[in-house]
Amino acid sequence: MLDLQRALKHDRLLRALTGLNRKAFEDLQADFAQALAEAEVPRRSPQPRQRATGAGRKPRLATVEVKLFFILFYFKVYPTFDLAGLLFELDRSQANRWMHRLQPLVEQALGEKLALPKRQLTSLEEFVEAFPTVERVMLDGTERPIQRAKDDEQQKTDYSGKKKRHTRSHLGMVAPDRRILVLSPAYPGKAHDKGILNTEGWAEWIPDEVKIQGDSGFQGFQNEYVNVEIPYKKPKGGELTAEQKAENRALAQERVVVEHAFGGLKRYGIAAQVYRNRKENFDDRSMLTAAGLWNFYLMAA
Q1: Could you give the angle at the alpha carbon of 175 between the alpha carbons of 29 and 76, nearest 5°?
Q2: What are phi and psi of 186, to 5 degrees?
Q3: What is Dmax (Cα atoms) for the chain?
Q4: Measured between alpha carbons, how far is 74 from 156 in angstroms, rounded to an integer?
Q5: Is the pLDDT of residue 56 over 60?
Q6: Selected residue with higher pLDDT from 235 and 131
Q7: Model confidence at 132, in pLDDT bands (50, 70, 90)?
Q8: Do 104 and 132 contact (CB within 8 A), yes or no?
Q9: Considering just the CA atoms, what is the radius of gyration of the chain in Å?
Q10: What are all long-range contacts of 71-74, with beta carbons under 8 Å and residues at least 24 apart?
Q11: How many CB atoms lie within 10 A of CB 15?
Q12: What Cα–Cα distance (Å) separates residue 210 from each residue in 175, 199, 219?
């Protein structure tokens, strides 16, 4: 079994295995413990208890601290359940059950910390209330590789021409401080960033005073809203002016923050490696949790 106490005592090891240092780990642990306590309401059995309290096999994930370490380790390292079971002395099926049991509790704890990205925007007031100090946002998509489906039609839907592989796509809205403010639901790899934006309708609820920056994949978006900045596209058979090239460079220097944010998100192996889980909608929930962990890391740093 892993030497958990050694990992918990050394910030470098803890960051490598969970993505959080000791201070952040302990800060999240308080809300995680509350979520766990609410989830573990004792079940009343109509039959009298036959076994004495404390009897029976002792649980491997016995404490709140170990449970939190287990689920954060899973998200950071993304081991197979066979490997997770070996490291934590569990059967692979137990490792599976513990992961799916604990993931919603981590998500709940991150929600209490206000670290989770929003999933949608429905009004100007909602944006201003949620992000009162934000003056500039950057839009971009991120893709996570998935296993190729057996069905031919599903393969075509999942195939990303940009990545040349089968993926799931998310559109993100990022602040200059690298926080992921809004994260779209998962879309098939075939979906285009601009198409996802049109479906989600975020831009309608961003105040005109807030600058929206995108890459060349959002061509045409600048004609729809007054506060949009995207790079100049080289005209067919022509060249960009020196001034346009300079503006493109300046925009790229500002937009690089979105790449840093997605790089931070993909510090978590579950968001970067080929997705293997089979539970319905877990691909979307796991990306949301990973984004929340990245935001919490920034808040606690």
Answers
A1: 40
A2: -70, 135
A3: 85
A4: 30
A5: no
A6: 131
A7: very high
A8: no
A9: 22
A10: 71/98, 71/99, 71/102, 71/103, 71/105, 71/106, 72/17, 72/18, 72/19, 72/20, 72/25, 72/106, 72/293, 73/2, 73/17, 73/18, 74/99, 74/270
A11: 18
A12: 11, 21, 19
- Rounded to 10°, the helix 64-77/282-300 angle is 110
Question: Is the distance from CB of 172 to CB of 139 less than 8 angstroms?
Answer: yes
What integer is the mean pLDDT of 60-77?
A: 94
Phi–psi pair at 224, nearest 5 degrees: -100, -30
Q: Which two tokens stand for residue 13?
A: 């090891």
pLDDT at 8: 86
Question: What percentage of the chain carries pLDDT values higher than 70?
Answer: 94
**Among the listed residues 232, 229, 230, the one whose alpha carbon sits nearest the alpha carbon of residue 241:** 232
Indicate if the pLDDT at residue 64 is higher than 70: yes
Which of left, alpha, beta for 201 (phi over 0: left; psi -120 to 50: alpha)? Answer: left
Check if the beta carbon of residue 298 is closer than 8 Å to that of residue 107: no
Residue with tokens 């994930």: 61
Residue 251 makes CB contacts below 8 A (sequence gap 6+) with 213, 229, 230, 231
- Strands 136-145 and 159-160, sheet pairing: unpaired
Tokens of 172: 């993100």
> In this model, does residue 292 exceed pLDDT 80?
yes
